[in-house]
Design goal:
single chain, alpha/beta, Rossmann fold, six-stranded mixed beta sheet, 6 strands, about 30% helix, about 25% strand, extended
Length: about 210
């Protein structure tokens, strides 16, 4: 049997362990973080760098949409042209990490909204879906729907081409950097190869290092 002195010592040690345990501090920060907030994609956000950002894309596409609609060789033709606007022939040669479709999708959607029948847009990205449905109709598997059958899928008159280029300058001492962007878009006549319209958008930004684009 344990003596009363031994029991007392054990009780005292247990009490000390409890006190020590209460005073231990963890490294986990349970304080509430900054709540998520919405930002206007047409304005510079809280996180800013030297890359291509949402306000650049919206501003550029809005300006180029207006230029295309004002180009008589495109939007003022007696017969509305058929146009392909996608990223197939649009290259990113800049040092900025960017999903090119953010530009081509924005431009196509805004043009389609504003054109009001002055031009029509062809989806080459979904041509497999179109051809599959046409085959089912031609074989009598499904009805022809409400639209008349055409001899073939629509061909295009003009297609978008272009590139994104950049020029960087970095101060190795301070880590401050500057980047100049030049984004060029053109509509190419698919019969002759003639450039029917050209547009250029350029901007330059300077910032401290630290912003990563994904």
């Amino acid at each position: 049997m344990m003596s009363k002195l031994t029991i007392f010592k054990l009780s005292l040690l247990s009490g000390l362990f409890v006190l020590c345990g209460c005073s231990v501090q963890t490294s986990v920060d349970n304080s509430p973080g900054r709540p998520t907030q919405y930002e206007d994609p047409g304005s510079a956000g809280l996180v800013r760098g030297v890359g291509v950002e949402s306000q650049d894309i919206k501003s550029m596409c809005d300006r180029m949409m207006r230029e295309i609609l004002d180009a008589p060789q495109i939007a003022a033709r007696a017969v509305p042209p058929l146009v392909i606007i996608d990223d197939q022939n649009f290259t990113n040669e800049s040092t900025s990490r960017l999903n090119k479709r953010l530009i081509t999708d924005q431009l196509r959607v805004e043009l389609n909204r504003a054109a009001q029948g002055r031009m029509y847009f062809i989806s080459r990205e979904n041509i497999g879906m179109v051809e599959k449905e046409r085959m089912l109709k031609q074989e009598g598997v499904v009805t022809t729907g409400t639209l008349p059958m055409t001899p073939a899928t629509a061909g295009a008159d003009f297609r978008l081409a272009g590139r994104i280029a950049s020029l960087d300058a970095i101060d190795n001492t301070s880590g401050f950097q500057s980047r100049y962007h030049q984004i060029t878009l053109e509509l190419i006549n698919l019969q002759t190869g003639i450039i029917a319209w050209s547009g250029r958008y350029e901007f330059q930004k300077a910032a401290q290092e630290g912003v990563e684009y994904r």
